[in-house]
Write a structure and sequence with these properties.
single chain; seven-stranded mixed sheet; 397 residues; globular; alpha/beta
Amino acid sequence: MALSHIASSSSRSALVKPLAALSSSPSLRRPFSSADDSTITVETSVPFTAHKCDPPSRTVETTPKELMTFFRDMAKMRRMEIAADSLYKSKLIRGFCHLYDGQEAVTVGMEAAITKKDCIITAYRDHCTFIGRGGTLLEAFSELMGRKGGCSRGKGGSMHFYRKEGGFYGGHGIVGAQVPLGCGLAFAQKYSKDDTVTFALYGDGAANQGQLFEALNISALLDLPSILVCENNHYGMGTAEWRAAKSPAYYKRGDYAPGLKVDGMDAFAVKQACKFAKEHALKNGPIILEMDTYRYHGHSMSDPGSTYRTRDEISGVRQERDPIERIRKLILTHDLATEKELKDIEKEIRKDVDEAIAKAKECPMPDPSELFTNVYAKGYGVEAFGADRKEVRVALP
């Protein structure tokens, strides 16, 4: 019912839009070098829809170098997630695992609009955000497999990636809890007057959480540079958005706060929207971005993802809106690379992923004593005691 309702109604067009909708200036269709900084002008796939603000222009400037970087980065993220799927099924990844394939344009477009001094905080679908913030494949796979070389020393796993030096304050397992934390980061940024912003990402399922509205309220009261980003992939855990939300227009949910609906499968639409949102947040306070995106896998590895939507819908989105294929089309249109050269890049990425997995498998597990580290702030202590060392004593400063 959930899928047939969406697929048969006018909202079906919100999920599937033709790649032919991508357009660029015909006068610019000439060969470029993929290494140069010549300007290429493209147009976003669909117009932005705005709430309490004027939408940004659909015209976006890029370069051959950026186009090739987008392709390489998204292809790496896609391959990483496909490999994670296999590792989980091989029981090398345990616990929870939420994959991001299909949503890569959100991470790549956002990174293109901001700096590493800006902060990002998200939920548990966090692997690609970590890569976008400068993390390595080896750190990612080591963390996924619980090895000490991971970005959280193997103690966080899939749901708790972290990279402070890249302004990434983690994946969080409690639905919606990252949003007030993100607004706290924005409070610190305003206090420090460093002209940076925080992007707090959450899904359409978390959009109904009360703490999100509380965080937005105080952000608006204090004019914090916080940007709330709803990654609307249209389904929560087995539940379509229309069954969970009376009003699925998430970009309007802030009421008094402005909002923007963005094609989250178009990296350049995301780039333009995030640039616009950062400028707004620094001057006027919080804004909501709704990224209309789609996940190819289920909600998590325990969710097949095909019981509440049809396989035809999934394949339709892959064929018509896939973010990587959109970039591939632009690269071929502007003669930046041949089809074979792009396939060679994908082969190279597959090799890099395989090598990272092999190295991660060789990385040791954390020592059991690590259970007691990074739990208490400096000045506090914890020790095991008793004949069998199974009792714990906490020492206060």
